[in-house]
Amino acid sequence: MKVKIDYDLCMGDGNCHRVCPEVFAYDDDQLRGVVKAPAVPAGAAEKVRQAAAECATQAVVIEG
User: Which of 15, 36, 38, 51 is most buried by its number of CB atoms within 10 A?
Assistant: First the structure.
């Protein structure tokens, strides 16, 4: 599983980082979420799905 953030949609509320800090971080300079590593580590897939589901703008994109 891979994940990315569509920065055209991201509104920077930080939900992805709060739900899954193993995969997402928050860029204080750009005021948006970022993906630490596009390949989701073992055991974090469910949290990534939850982060995507909780993203109000659907900016978290799961691939594969």
Answer: 51
